[in-house]
Amino acid sequence: MRATCIDTGQKYVRSGKIIIDAPAAVIFSYLSDPRKHSEFDGSGTLRGNVRGPEVLELGSSFGMDMHLFANYRIKNTVKECEQDRQIAWCHLGGHRWRYELVPLSEHHTEVMETFDGSTAWFPPALKIIKAYDRNQIAVLKTLSNLKALVELEYSRQ
Length: 157
Fold this sequence. Notes:
Number of strands: 8
CATH topology: Alpha-D-Glucose-1,6-Bisphosphate, Chain A, domain 4
Order of helices and strands: EEHHEEEEEEHH
Strand order of the largest sheet: 1-2-8-7-6-5-4-3
CATH superfamily: START domain
Helix content: 25-40%
Number of helices: 4
Radius of gyration: 15 Å
Largest sheet: 8 strands, antiparallel
């Protein structure tokens, strides 16, 4: 199963969803460990070199090397966190990346990823750099990568 787009009906929000054959707690352990983000990133912008806690929680800050047009370092802060259900972070620009997990059964979880530009300092500016279009594609790739990674690791347990 591939990730599918979600029509949010919101001008500055892009989302996708996928069903992963693993418990929510297993998936959340990947999402809440910033050192693993580059393993499933679909944007191609993460370069690793993470600084911060091994497990993210509300208020945690973490930084990583990035590349989009040029190399740079970004610091993110966790703004939303509910164990095994939701985590979201943003950086100085204010826009958020959010993951929501809905258990469907003991071993199946629906995961929704959202790029939320409505929380940015100036949402229209993100349109100029094509952030909405680029992030819609990245969300779908990220979810597909996350599914492949988690299911492979979970099947080995």
